[in-house]
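User: I'm new to structure prediction. If I give you an amino acid sequence, what do you actually give back? Let's try with this one:
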Amino acid sequence: MNGWQGKILHIDLTTKKHSIQTPCLEIYKKYIGGRGLAGYYLRNFVKESPCSARMPLLFFTGPLVDTPSPASGRMTVMSRSPLTGTVCDTSVGGRLGVQIKRAGYDGIVVTGKNPQLCGICICDSKVEIVEASSLKAKEISDVMSVLVEKGSSVAIVGPAAEAGVLFSCISIDGHFFSGRGGLGLVMASKNLKYLKVGGTSKTTVYSKDELNLAREEILRLTAASPILTGSFGISNYGTPALYDLMHTRRMMPTSNFKATYFKSAPAMNAWQYKQKYQPKKKGCFGCHILCKKQAQDRRLIPEFETMSHFSALIDNTDLDVVVEANRICNETGMDTISAAATLACYAEISRIKLTPPKIIKLLSDIAYSRDEGQYLKLGSYRYAESKGCVHLSMTVKKQELPAYDPRGALGMALAYAVSTRGGCHLRAYPISHEILRKPVATDRFTFSGKARIIKIGEDLNAVVDSLTACKFLFFAASLEEYSRAFYGVTAVKTSAQDLLKAGERIFYNERLMNAACGFGSRDDDLPPRFFSQAGSSGESITVNPINREEFLTARRAYYKIRGLDREGMPLRQKCGELGIEWINF
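Assistant: Good question. You get back a string of structure tokens that encode the predicted 3D arrangement of the chain. For your 585 residues, that looks like this:
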């Protein structure tokens, strides 16, 4: 094959055996790789308990990984979420995807449970399961100092996963994070501390000339994009470039989403971090945007969602506390969005002001399951439920919402509700057109047309996560350019519409797996606060509560366009049209 390696590595930690599977080309064409192919391998196990020995943890690459295609260093980690119970995948950077490809595999499927803490070491065809008890409860940087080796990449869980934090994450190479949904806990439940991969082979490309033409076009388009490479764009300021946009549009979640305007935002924005920390650029393998920023002392500058939630959402005005909170989450292995949102929920329920020392102590207590952290480690939904205040948990399908208030962008409201992995901005990312005005501007205060836009956005991002590529590049490039790159790599002649149809198949398969786990229309909803309370209006911007009837009408339209029944459940006929094998539910 070109692009694909044609092999899937299966590792059973219970039996300590491994095997190799060779999927046929038709499977690759249907599911592409990354998120799509991982979903294909998850479907037979999706009804298993998220942290059972039988539940697989999947590390999958795409055909563009380890090729000159721009921003092709990403990969997918997937399983069933212990936080939500839904299908859960994350697109993550670093070099792990590249090393998996160079070791000769398109994906790694890990099942079983080792009797003691262990690590998996892969070097080309050599696969070892090694004892790792000396690394128990060690933080990410401590494990990295032991394992780091040129020509290899490492996925690690920190003490938070070992302590049972439902929103624990997996660290890739110490700087990139498979964050949402608690995949770190899935890995820790297998007594797996780390996965280390190195390889020496190269990914073959069908036509370097064809790929280079596509690459040049993508680079030209991104160079002309103010959002990506402009003086105030993502390349210069990272994702925190969005901070001022959310502030000025009065959709910055504040005080646990009670408000949508944070008056201290001008003192907490990306420019302030740049002045104080003088960060350097970092990024994923093969990326020219370099959106990550690292301070002079090597601490990571927070991403936008982290920056927003550890400031506005918890009413904190100390930059150093935001950076330290980010460091604690990164070192212990916790998703920053869920961690901050859980603190915000706790503060509203307990009516306690979160001072800087209190923020730092609570985060540490959560990571090590101490004191109040024993309860907060379960996430805001379960904590609020235990206090009889479930309505104060700002979640969808028990996953905490990121830093875009849905009252300020109704496409975002619908996208949150119907996301297959719970409260998530990246499934459809309507912020692209509602706020950034790309590819076309839409009215953010209406549901009109949003059902179809959300469906197309979901299909597009399913393709992006399967190739794999970076969503940011699609502020400038499109599937037209990437279909050409796909052909140049794989020799599979494919149009943009063909890829979009594959994206529809990938997303519908996830919807089918969720239905098999009991999810339906009752779960495709928002917290009641957004329907009953207005946001923070001002400066000629009115932020009204979401009209519930209009929301339900838009959701019904989405179900129809997506090919679901009136209760949001998949249809056998639609599965047949897409070539998806049915799962009973």
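You can read the tokens as a compact description of the fold. Here is one thing that stands out. Residues 8-198 form a domain with the Aldehyde Ferredoxin Oxidoreductase;  A, domain 1 fold (CATH 3.60.9.10).
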